[in-house]
Design brief:
354 residues; alpha/beta; 6-stranded mixed beta sheet
């Protein structure tokens, strides 16, 4: 229960006086410093509570060399971020974990190459303690820009591109290739033989890995591979499904590289008078409830723990920051002895579409 209701804001001096310690001692306790005996530290914390003292952020930063802020960088245009529920779920997981660590999220957009230098300058300017970045592209430009700022960073998804040493870049990914293979294996198991794939963007490793999983499952099956290109949007899934039907009217199954493209495929099939799954079975990837549960019929899909991956990114970054007592990082943003990457499992969720 604090005493303060109205009047002047409590100062560090008033906290020190209430606790019976020097201002320097009160400052070390309030701002997270070390070297204060437990009993004295407890007195300072009690005084803070009683007076309702709110620490000065600038003073805390001087003592701890931490800002308490983490940059979250999304390598996509704003319209994609707000239209695709994947991003909302990943940011939700990140924010929940940052909140648990009493850290503030600072959201940065990287809509194109022109933003990379700006982001690198911001990161290097001491505004944040570290960075989390996802939806990366295989040109490696955003990854390199973040690394050039020399701040601890963790990436969502397997980074790739010229000059990017994947093994040295801390990242969190799901088993995209294994999940895709399981999806196509399921279609084979239910008797489908003319299985098409709606692929994601060629410049994203998640899409490339899911395409590879499709290839893996069909190797030795004696069926020609049938792939149409999408861009992870529902509209591209609808167009890709139309393309597949024009090339192979007897296609009896399709694996889409994400749930949104699967919804587009379902729309095209419905417009063509084809029944799902009787005529064409459909499987997606992501298992976002707002999408998979709302389709007609409900979508069979590969589940990745999107929110959990966001939380894992934060935990890995916090480990890096905690291991780096001097507030710096090596040029890769990685710290010795810590795992460079985490790959989470995927699960096929069977519903009515396949």
């Amino acid at each position: 229960m604090t005493e303060r209701t109205t009047g002047p804001r409590p100062t560090l001096e008033s906290v020190a006086a209430r606790a019976g310690v020097s201002r320097a001692t009160a400052s070390r306790v309030v701002n997270g410093g070390t070297g204060v005996r437990g009993a004295l530290a407890d007195k300072v914390r009690q005084a803070v509570e009683e007076l309702g003292y709110i620490p000065n952020h600038a003073a805390r930063t001087l003592v701890t060399r931490r800002t308490g802020a983490i940059a979250v960088i999304i390598g996509e245009p704003g319209f994609r971020v707000f239209s695709d529920p994947f991003f909302e779920r990943q940011v939700r997981g990140i924010n929940r974990e940052l909140t648990a660590h009493d850290a503030q999220l600072v959201l940065l957009w990287a809509e194109g190459p022109g933003d990379h230098d700006r982001i690198a300058r911001y990161l290097g300017g001491g505004h944040v303690d570290g960075a989390l970045a996802f939806s990366l592209h295989t040109d490696g430009a955003l990854t390199s820009a973040i690394q050039s700022a020399r701040v601890p960073a963790v990436f969502g998804g397997r980074p790739d591109g010229p000059g990017v040493a994947v093994a040295d870049v801390p990242h969190v990914d799901c088993d995209n290739r294994g999940g895709a293979r399981e999806a196509v294996d399921h279609l084979i198991a239910i008797g489908r033989r003319r299985i098409a794939h709606i692929a994601g963007p060629r410049d994203q490793t998640s899409a490339l890995d899911r395409l590879a999983g499709y290839h893996d499952a069909l190797t030795g099956e004696g069926e020609a591979l049938l792939v149409s290109q999408g861009d992870f949007t529902a509209g591209s899934g609808a167009r890709a499904m139309a393309d597949l039907l024009s090339r192979r009217p007897d296609v009896d199954a399709v694996f889409a590289a994400n749930d949104l493209m699967a919804t587009g495929a379902l729309r095209t099939l419905r417009e063509r008078g084809l029944s799902v799954p009787e005529d064409v079975a459909v499987v997606g990837f992501d298992d976002m409830p707002s999408v998979a549960d709302a389709t007609d019929p409900p979508l069979t899909t590969v589940r990745q723990d999107i929110e959990g991956m966001g939380r894992l990114m934060v935990r890995l970054l916090m480990q890096i920051l905690q291991s780096d007592g001097d507030g710096g990082a090596d040029e890769r943003g990685a710290m010795g002895g810590l795992p460079a990457s985490v790959v989470t499992p995927t699960t096929l969720v069977r519903r009515a579409s396949a």
